Amino acid sequence: MQLSLIAFVVACACCVLAPTIEWFLAARALQGLGMGGLIALSQSIIGAIIAPRERGRYSGYLAGTM
């Protein structure tokens, strides 16, 4: 989770500082990888921590923020 968050934040900074469109597109690709990890891992954390009866509500909260 932390590596995905770091990858996303670093990619955001690279997007801001991108000198060329190629650099920007590469940073956006890294952002996509980081966000994909954040989404998948946050759902797996919900599955590991939250009781099965409560998972629907918390998954709804997660989907609502996305």
Question: Notable features of this structure?
Answer:
66 residues, mainly alpha, 3 helices, 83% helix, 0% strand
Q: Are there runs of 5+ residues with pLDDT below 50, and where?
A: none
Shape: elongated
In N-to-C order, the SSE pattern is HHH
CA-based gyration radius = 15 Å
Mean pLDDT: 93
Helix content: over 70%
Count of individual helical segments: 3
N-to-C CA distance: 17 Å
Task: Kindly name the structural category.
Answer: mainly alpha
Classify the beta-strand content into a percent band: under 5%
Largest sheet: none
Number of strands: 0
Descriptive notes:
The chain starts with a helix and ends with a helix. Helix 1 (2-16) packs antiparallel against helix 2 (21-49). The protein is built from 3 helices and no strands. It has 66 residues and is mainly α.
